Amino acid sequence: MAQLTATRVLRPVGTAGKLFAFGLDVGRGLFRRPFQLREFLQQAWFIASVTIIPTALVAIPFGAVIALQVGGLIKQFGAQSFTGSASVLAVIQQAGPIATALLIAGAGGSAIAADLGARKIREELDAMMVLGIDPIQRLVVPRVLACMLVAVFLNGMVSVVGVAGGYVFNVVLQDGTPGAYLASFTALAQLPDLWIGMVKALVFGFIAAIVASYKGMSAGGGPKGVGDAVNESVVITFLLLFVVNFVLSTLYLQLVPPKTG
Predict the structure, then answer these.
(1) Per-residue b/e over 218-253, b at no fewer than 16 CB within 10 Å?
(2) Contact, 161 vs 60, CB < 8 A?
(3) CA dihedral 196, 199, 205, 208 (to 10 degrees)
(4) CA nearest 204: which of 74, 96, 46, 50?
(5) Could you report the per-residue pLDDT of 31-45, keeping only the tens digit for each?
(6) What's the pTM value of the predicted model, to 2 decimals?
(7) CB atoms within 10 A of CB 98
(8) Long-range contacts formed by 5-14: CB under 8 A, 24+ apart
(9) d(CA 261, CA 210)
(10) CB-hemisphere CA count at 13 Å for 138?
(11) Minimal CA–CA distance to 221: which of 75, 81, 120?
């Protein structure tokens, strides 16, 4: 009984170690040649096609909610002139990368896990290894790079749409002035705020693709196992995203001094 309990307790540790080792194998595969350019372009197009419309639809209410919430809170302190900077920085630094990563993991990551899981139960991955083809270099590396590329572009789109939505809702619904909104943004925002958002999107895309590929290639037990792998990949990715976001945000606030108006 005690051994069974210890096994269950230590199982997540073993899974985390295997996931980390898988990530190192993928990192090593990034520098191996030949690079699978055709597979990379196909995966980038597929991930963009399944995520771009949901991302655009999510970005507008995301920016509006942040503008309303932040604007209302700042109004209570009598600092309405800083509504623009607070809303824009919240969208660029936090909301944009997280919304992008959630959609990449939910739409693109689940598709990657299902695809690799189906190949696994059909023993296609084993056949590739018998033929001397490394599945990580042939299948996983193009998908990881595609997720990272699409995540950066989607983050830019979410940021633009979210900032525009926040501007409209602040000016129309909260009686803000366009001049004050833009002036506060230019007074407090700085270029590293944009860089940290892009770095987060890049890292989140990498994590989503690594987790989805690992769970897909570890699937077993037939179609039900593939379904379980897809669900587990989404849940694990969400948990890792929030932890990594906390770490990156803390490092940024410690290393980059805020711009003073």
Answers:
(1) bbeeeeeebebbbebbbebbbebbeebbeebeeebe
(2) yes
(3) -70
(4) 96
(5) 877 878 888 898 889
(6) 0.84
(7) 20
(8) none
(9) 41
(10) 11
(11) 120
